[in-house]
């Protein structure tokens, strides 16, 4: 399993601050596609991604027990 931490508008879309994904044999890009399909998350295209507190890109592969943080762009002033 993989734990996914959601921030800002992703939390609002999902109605929670974290999700558990039953499978780990996928890339970050595949995870984002799965979350869009399963949870209707539409704000994933520009998110920064960290796996186990290390920033990464969409080609990174997930492993069993990983924690993935999806962080949308922040704006304001």
Outline the structure in words.
- The chain is an alpha+beta fold.
- The chain has helices at residues 9-14, 28-39, and strands spanning 2-6, 18-21, 48-51, 54-56, 67-71.
- The chain has a five-stranded mixed β-sheet with strand order 2-1-5-3-4.
- The chain starts with a strand and ends in a 6-residue tail after the last strand.
- The model has no long low-confidence stretch (mean pLDDT 93).
- Belongs to the MoaD family.
- It comes from Alteribacillus iranensis.
Extract low-pLDDT stretches. Answer: none
Estimated share of beta-strand residues:
25-35%
CATH architecture level-2 label: Roll
Radius of gyration: 11 Å
CATH class: Alpha Beta
Taking the sheet with the most strands, its summary is: 5 strands, mixed
Question: Fraction of residues in helices?
Answer: 10-25%
Taken from the alpha-carbon principal axes, the silhouette is globular
User: What number is the mean pLDDT?
Assistant: 93
Counting DSSP E segments of at least 2 residues, the number of strands comes to 5
- The CATH superfamily is known as Beta-grasp domain
Query: How many structural domains?
Result: 1
Which secondary-structure class do the elements indicate? alpha+beta
Contiguous helical run count: 2
- Largest sheet: spatial strand order: 2-1-5-3-4
Please give the alpha-carbon distance between the first and last residues.
38 Å
SSE pattern, N- to C-terminal: EHEHEEE
Fill in the CATH topology.
Ubiquitin-like (UB roll)
Which helices and strands appear, and what pairs or packs with what?
Layout: E1 2-6, H1 9-14, E2 18-21, H2 28-39, E3 48-51, E4 54-56, E5 67-71
Parallel strand pairs: 1-5
Antiparallel strand pairs: 1-2, 3-4, 3-5
GO molecular function: nucleotide binding
Pathway: Cofactor biosynthesis; molybdopterin biosynthesis
Organism: Alteribacillus iranensis
């Amino acid at each position: 399993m993989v734990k996914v931490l959601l921030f800002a508008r992703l939390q609002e879309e999902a109605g929670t601050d974290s999700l558990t994904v039953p499978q780990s044999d996928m890339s970050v890009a595949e995870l984002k596609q799965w979350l869009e399909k399963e949870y209707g998350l539409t704000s994933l295209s520009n998110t920064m991604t960290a796996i186990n507190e290390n920033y990464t890109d969409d080609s990174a592969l997930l492993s069993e027990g990983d924690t993935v943080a999806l962080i949308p762009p922040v704006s304001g002033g």
